[in-house]
Every structure is written in structure tokens, then in C-alpha cells.
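Exercise (ungraded).
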Amino acid sequence: MTRATPTPRRPRAPASASQQRLDPIGGLAVWPLAPVVAVIVVTYAVVTTASRLHEIQIVEVAAAAVAVLIIAAAALVWSARPDLAPFTRGRAIVIVALGVTAHLLAAASTWHLNGMIQDDFAPIGLGLLLLALAPFRPGKEILVLGGSVALVVGLTALAQSPFLDVQTLPLLFAIIAMTQVLAPTLAGAAYSRQVVNSIHRWQTDARRAIRARTEASRGLLAQSVVDHRLTNLGADVLPFLADVLDRGSLTAADVKRARSLAFQVRRVLVAEVDHTWLDDLIDREREALRRRGLTPLCVIADPERRATGFDSDQRAAVGALIVALCTLRGFDPTSLVVQIDGSGAAPTDTDHITQAFGHRGARSTPATDTMTMAIVTAAQAHAAAQARAQARAQAQVHAATTRPRMIIDRHSSAVLGAVDTITIQAGISLPSIQRRRALRPYLSVLRAVFTRVRVTSRHPLLTLEFDAERGQTPAPRIKGS
Amino acid sequence: MSLGLPGHLVQQTLARALARAAHWFALTCLMAAAVSVSILSLNRSPELWITIVVVVAMGALLVLFTRHRRIALAVAYLIVGTLGVYVFTLTVLGVPDVFPTSNMYLAALPKMALVMVGGAGSTALGGVLWSTAAFLLAEAAAFLAILGTTVPYRTDLFTLSTYLVLVGAMVLAGIDRRVSNAAQPAVHRAVQEGANRQLRDALDTRAIALLNDTTVAQLVDLSLAEPGALSPGLRASLNYTLTTLHDTNWLTDIDARSSTAPQSTVTAQPTAGDDWHASAVYTAIRRCRDRGLTIEVTGDRDALARLDAGSDRDVGLAVQQCLVNVILHAGIASAEVAIESDLTTISLLITDAGRGFTESESASDRLGLRQSVRRRIEQLGGSVLIWSRPGAGTSVRLTVPAAQGQNVPVSGRPTP
């Protein structure tokens, strides 16, 4: 009897996931929720305060309460602005803290004179502010914030209960006040969780489909790579090798030709190794522009090959943006410049080479392909064995003693700011409103995967600048011997 | 993450999320109502027990409806909820000398819970219709109930505002306000192209490494050889190069071999010596010995059996490249390969006492180290460390992950 293969569990969405982070373009569509809620909260606070003037003991404190709530609402609108995405935890805490301050001020302003808890504007306002966090913050965080706020609101209600017009059990007032906060909190948290799970499920399926499609084309891709490589190898190399094998002997001319071919092939391969995904992308766009009958002039300045340090999401975001720029009406095909520079170590291939047992200033020894092997005499062999043992011992000592330092150095350099800054410039002759509208979704995706996205415009030149922080990938740790 | 929801899933997803939010709002209201009337019933008005029953009944139906989302359950919730609102309002507001007017938040709790049935709609319009029906029924039931009490009627703004907020949210979610319908597919295309490019890069990396191992190495060998008859070693390696490039589909063959299981998991356990002789590292060492290099092997040779076929092949090719570098660049005819292992990794230290090199030199002539060694090992999830200094030799440490070893031998133990 065969056992059924268990269905793999879907990976859970990360705890920090929110609708805005997982689906930045969708996040754009829900952002108007923030100003709408802000208007409701402020209007309700002003109207309620104005209609309960007889209950207010200290007018200045009441005015301060409304003012602080207005600041909280303004902070919500500011934090939710798409051009300032992502909405961070710090912003959420500030908004809620301002709301709680407004609540305490409002309670102080009506102390002893408050008629009914249910008319207080602050608990409902706080509840609505928490509800408005739903598209921007994870459900658990909304729950924690809402729970804390409900506790404060409940305690304030208990403290006010002896002075209220309605005389009943104090606990009821606490329940009423807390429900005004908890109901929207739970609703917001449930919305956030449901949307995040749905998007995450879709992303998992979509990525699986992308992987499957990619794997399906593996054979064709492999064949095209082989064909490309053999073409690049040049028409002469393989016939030359076959000819030498057939003849079974070498001439001086063969040796000379082999040296020349080795140099040529190596040069081609090194050039190809230096090619990055960004070069490929720009090559393709250049070709697409040519097909449209244009004469493109696209410049890439990435001397340190920092593009290789970008992850797949960052590559996709940049790719989609560049494609969008190139296909935008009014795009000047001679204006595209992509530049990557930054601070911290670039992802180079030589950064691991360590001058382990010497000084960097030591005289270098030329090492070329044409170097002939030394004739090793018995005495030299003995000396070499000694030197090799010494080299190996030194390498092991170095590995054992300096490895932690290397790991710390590389890690701390990442933390301290291994940042790649990518700058994209393009000339686009479009009214700024149209240009902004066309690029807004791409910018929202950029903001989800890069930090500090800056957009500057001097018509018709548009400049986009954003940072990629490397250091998410842990430094490779090597087991000690 | 760049892969947002495609247009056709947006409405459905948002409707579901709103329904979930509405149901939790309603459940919170019902729980608050149940707790409140329970406290009142225990401490002051025992006749309120009936309200606990109707609130619990509403809660139970809501939970059922949340789980199964059937129209029949929505209708049942609407009917039971309307009756519940009537009974709740009549009983709670009927408690003497507690509530001055009808617009009490406590009395509004079951009404707000009833309005939240709007989450049942799978579209914005459907949701609005359900909510409107619930709002009208709740208000009518409450109005009738209030008539039966002595408290004066006041408009309940809590339920009205809850209804308006819910309807507003449903309308907002129902309108496809996506700024650009082209952006999301463009991002999807970019992700797909990125995946294709990544695969192509991986294949290219292998292809370049193989060309460097075979063609370039072969041409260099010929350029270093003396004119005259080919040596048997040179003839064999020429034959190997041409066969590899001409008669096999290198990349596809590599993939096919890579998919085989780790050597350590095969049922027929080979002997220790077999493992070593079957490994690609041994083949690489043998090839380089054929080319005149004296290689001393120390350490735990059998640990190589823990590598799967693909890793074994790539580690072998990387070791071969390191040894070829010794032949070509070190100016010395001897090297040492030390194999070490621990529970999760295997390390190979290739050491020579030759010329060594500097960072600046390697940058201009780095194809072998970069492509045939580093990228290969990094593609296996391993790492490469190189120590070198002009005149003091070179040590290259390749570390690759391996299947868990059962008996981890002492590292660096010399083997006979």
C-alpha cells in the first residue's frame, strides 16, 4: 500500500507583513481610508465637544484634547501617504500615543462633570484611528495597541464612574468604553490578517507557477546558453584542438597559436562574467527602443557591479520601473542613465582574498598563463615541502584566529551602512500630473523593497534615487577546523 | 514582495477581508452585550436572563455564518437578530431607573452586531443591501420595543454611524480604484523575467566555468608544451575536452547527474576506499597528477561520500581548478589537499608553497578562481577563503554543506 504524499503546508506570512508591504500597488487603492477616518474623527471630536460645553470644567484642557486628537489624525494622514510608505510601527505608536493623550486630556477637562461615558469622543476616535491602521500594519500589532488603549480607556471610565449621571455598576462603564475601542480594533486586526493571508497565499502560488514555468524552459535555455557559448568561443578553437589531436604532435606555430587563442577566449569569458542582470535589462530595452525606430542612448554606470547584490524583488521592481519609463509617452530615448554607487563594501569577487601572512605592500610576483613551470630539484622539493607546511599552518592559524574578526567586520560593515544607491534619470516630456500618475504604482513597489526613495523633477528630467541596504544576508560562517 | 494581487482577485479578497472584519466587530459587540447584561442580571435585575439567551443565540448564529457563509444562515441571523434586538431593547430599557433615554450604547450593541451581516455580500452592492436590510429591521424592532417601555425615544447615532461607516468601507472596496491596471502585470512580467534571467545566469556560470576548465585549460596546456609528439596525458586531456564539448550536451547532462541522490543514502554501502576512488575530487587529483603535479592528500577522504552527486562533481571541478592554478601559476610542482569535516560541512584546503599572488593581480586575471572555484562553490551554498602572499604560497579553503555525518572523524587526521 502506498502512502499518500502529505500536502505541504503553505508557508505562513511573516509576522511583520501588512497589506501595504505585500501588495504596494493594492495599498495605493486603500490609502484614502486614512483621510476619511481622520475627517470623521476630527469632526466627531469637535461636534461632541461643542455640544457638551456645560460638562467641561477646564476649557483650555478640552481645547488641548481636541487639538492633540487633530494632530493624531493629521499624523495618520501623513503616515499613510503613498510617497512616505511604508507605514512604520513607530508611526503607529505615535498616532496611538497622541490619541491616548487626547483621551486623558478630555477626561481631565470634564472631571466630575461628565454625564455619560458613551458620549466621550476619545474612545470612539481612538477606535477609528486603530481601525484605519488595518491596511498598513500587521494584525497582531493592531491587537496589542488596541488592547493597551482599551485598558487605559477602561480604567479612566472606572475612575469617572462615581460622578456620572447614570448610576449603575462601575464595571458596565468600563465595558462600554472598552467596547468602543475593542470592536474596531478587532475588526481592523481581522481585516489585516485576512488580507495578508490572502495575498501571501496568492504570492506563494504565483511564485510556484513562475518557478514551474522557468523550469519548463530550462532545456531551451540550456541549449541557447550552449549555442551562445560555442559561438563566442570562435570558429577556430575546436577545429584547432581537433587538428592537434589528429596529428598527435605539436609545432612551434601550434604553441604560439594556442597561447593567442587562450588569451582571446579568456578575455571574452572575463568580459561575459562582468555582465550583470542590469546590463541584460538595459540591452533588452535598448533593442526594444530600436525596434520602435528610435535611436536609444542608455547609460549604465555600475563600476563596482553593485547590481549583483540586489535580491530578486529589488531586481523585479527596478526592471518594471525601467520598462515603464522606456514605454512611457514622451520618453526621450537618449536620456536614460542608471547609476549605482554606495557606501560599504561592494559585492566583489576579490573581497575574500586575504593577505594572510604578509604585508599588502609586498612586491607582487607576476603570474601569467605563459609562465613555465619551475624545474624542481630535490633540494627545492625539500624546501617546498617545508614552505608548504608552513603556509598551511599559517592558513589554519589565521583561519582559527581571524575568522571571528572577519565575520564581525563584514557583518558590522553591513549594519553600519553597506548601502547601494541607485539613481535613474530619464527625460520625459509629460505634464507632471500625468507622469506622477503613471509612475505612482511603480514607485509604491520600489518603496516596498528599497529604502529612502527620492523623486526629483526638473522638467523634463526626472530623477529617482533609492537605497538598497545589503546585510540582510548573514555573513557566511565557516566551521573551524 | 513585489507580487501584488491581480485585478481579478482584488474585489473578492477585499470583500472577504471586510466580511471577516465585520464579523469580529459584531462578535465583540455581542460579547460586550452578553457580559454587561450578565453582570446586571446577577447584581440587579434577574429578569435580564432572557437577554443573555438572545445574545448568545445571535452569537452562535454569527459564528456558524462566519464559518460557512451560506445565504440561509445570513437570513437566519437576520431573523433571529431582529427578534433579539426587540427582546434585548425591551428588557434592558425596561429595567426601572437605570437608563434615562433610549439611545444607550448598551442597547445599541445588538443592533450594531446585526448591521454587520453586510459582510455576507460577496460584492459591494450585495453587502450594502444586506446591511441596509439589517439596519432597517434593527431600527424597526428597537422602535417597537421602545414603545413598550417608559424611556423616551432618542435617535440612536451609534448604529446609524456604524451602518454608514460599513457601507462607506464596502463602497470604497468595491470600486476598482487601482491607479494603473498595467502596473501589476508589468511587475509580474518583471518577476518572471527575473526568474528566467537567474536560471540563465546559473547555466551561464556553469558554462563559463566548464569552458574555462576544458577549453582554456587545454589551450594553456598546449601553449606550455614543448613542440613534438603529444604526451599521453596531453592527448588524454585533449580527447576529454573535445568529447565533452562535441559529443555531450554539457549543461543538460550535468542537470541529469545532479538530480541523483546523495551517495551516503544508497542502500548498498560501498567500502571506504570505493567512496574515495569514486569521488570527483579523486578524479581531479588523478588528472593533475597525470600532468606532473605531486599531490599529497591528507585528512578524512571518506567524508566526501556525504556529498550528493552534483556537489561532488562541482567540488571536484573546483579542486581541479585550484590544482591547475598551482600548475600554471605557482611555479612549483607540488601541492597538498587536506580534507576536513564536521557534522554539517566538508572543507578542503588546497595549499601550495609557490609564488602566491596579490589581490590586484587576481583582479585582472581571476576567471579561474572567480568562475570555476568561487561561483561554483557558492552555488552549492558553500564558501571560499583564499590566503596568499607573494613568495609565501597560497591556501584555498573550500567549505561546502554536506549530509549529516554519523561518525565525525578527527579533522586533519593524516591518512595512509
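Further reading is listed at the end of the chapter. For now, observe: Chain A has 15 helices and seven strands. The CA atoms of residues 225 and 231 of chain A lie 10 Å apart.
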